[in-house]
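Homework help board

Subject: predicted structure for assignment chain

Our instructor gave us this sequence and asked us to write out the predicted structure in token form, then describe one feature. I got the tokens but I'm not sure how to describe them. Can anyone check?
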Amino acid sequence: MTPAATVRSLRIPSDVGRLAEVREMIRSAATAAGAEPGYIGDLVQAVDEDATNAIVHGHAGRPGWVVVRLAREEDRLIVTIEDDAPVFDPTGVPEPDLSEPPERRRPGGMGVHLARLCVDEISHRPRPGGGNILTLVRKLEPGTKEDR
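My token output:
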């Protein structure tokens, strides 16, 4: 297996107004890495949801930063989202009850679920010195998520 080559990296302050820069970086870096347009939309959605959660819920109005990196490793795009917010592992968030009609659900709470649907793998580890490192993997090969 060849080591991952970083295609692009972006560091932003903890400010939702800066998320457009993150989305654009992911779009352009994934395109440069050879991703199909449909895959790019899914990846942008997942990164946007997870970076938003780090800023809104992790930093919760306090100063901080988020670093987003995209790399290609063989047939996979690997995105890491690193922050200095309190440790939170979104992989432990239970799936929402989708049998409940949307109008009867409480607002919010769908971001982690949506991100899971958009990528093939999600993993979390605490950042040394505090914070989080969330890794998202999206395979470049065609097929359904179940086929990968």
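Reply (TA_rk): Your tokens look well-formed. For the description, you could write something like this. The two ends are 18 Å apart (CA to CA). That's the kind of observation they're looking for.
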